[in-house]
Automatic annotation (TrEMBL):
Binding site for (6R)-10-formyltetrahydrofolate: 65, 90-93, 107
Source species of the chain: Hoeflea poritis
Lineage, highest ranks first: Bacteria, Pseudomonadati, Pseudomonadota, Alphaproteobacteria, Hyphomicrobiales
Name of the featured protein: Phosphoribosylglycinamide formyltransferase
PROSITE patterns reported for this sequence: GART
GO MF entries: phosphoribosylglycinamide formyltransferase activity
Presence of the UniProt keyword Transferase in the record: yes
Length: 210
């Protein structure tokens, strides 16, 4: 099994989806620890409920971003993870930090990248009146929401949607997509190359139900 650490800032529902997936005996990963940059992140309790070790490393306890990231890095190293999943971790990571985990750190973002990077994706999707929305899992590189894509899932934007109803539909897709994308990476079926593109091997047949 691959050892996976998860970084969160809040609710932790994607963390929950990863934990649930990892309970299956044929899943190639185990969640070995959770790091939050916020003490009030609900996902911490969720992890604790499953006896997964948790650590809080708050920005305010460190002089600058470099010191904060050094502290996170130190905590991560104690967990000896093979991979790191960002799951609603709401801070941009520096190039230094990212390069340490290049190819083994992935993120989920609530839009069909490269459209709608950044925050408030659901509201912006509604404003632009696009009819398709979704979520993306990508390797983490220095730019925000910019790394090479691993997997995406689309959902319709319905006429009566507001940001909440749309977010809920996307979130449901996220909870399926993230475990399947993590599996692809953990099984070596997709990896980032030196030139920063993604290479797929034995990619599963599309079944219309990512
Ligand atoms: C998720 O929708 C995730 O895609 C998003 O934050 C939410 C976290 O929910 N991430 C980002 O916007 C990152 N740019 P969760 O804490 O319940 O998993």
């Amino acid at each position: 099994h691959k050892r996976v650490a998860v970084m969160i800032s809040g609710r932790g529902s994607n963390l929950g989806a990863l934990i649930s997936a990892s309970m299956a005996s044929d899943y190639p990963c185990r969640i070995v620890g959770v790091v939050s940059d916020r003490l009030d992140a609900a996902g911490l309790q969720l992890a604790a409920d499953y006896d997964i070790e948790t650590h809080v490393v708050e920005r305010k306890d460190h002089a600058d971003r470099a010191a904060h990231e050094d502290a996170i890095q130190a905590v991560l190293e104690t967990m000896r993870p093979d991979m790191v999943c960002l799951a609603g971790y709401m801070r941009l990571l520096s190039g230094d930090f990212v390069s340490r985990w290049m190819g083994s750190m992935i993120n989920i973002h609530p839009s069909l990248l490269p459209s709608f990077t950044g925050l408030d994706t659901h509201q912006r999707v509604l404003s632009h009146q696009v009819r398709l929305h979704g979520c993306s899992v990508h390797f983490v590189t220095e730019g925000m929401d910019e790394g090479p894509l691993i997997a995406q899932a689309a959902v319709p934007v319905l006429p009566d949607d507001d940001a909440d109803s749309l977010a809920a539909r996307v979130l449901k897709a996220e909870h399926k997509l993230y475990p399947s994308a993590l599996r692809l990476v953990a099984e070596g079926k997709v990896r980032i190359t030196d030139s920063g593109t993604v290479l797929f091997r034995d990619y599963p047949e599309a079944d219309g139900d990512a």
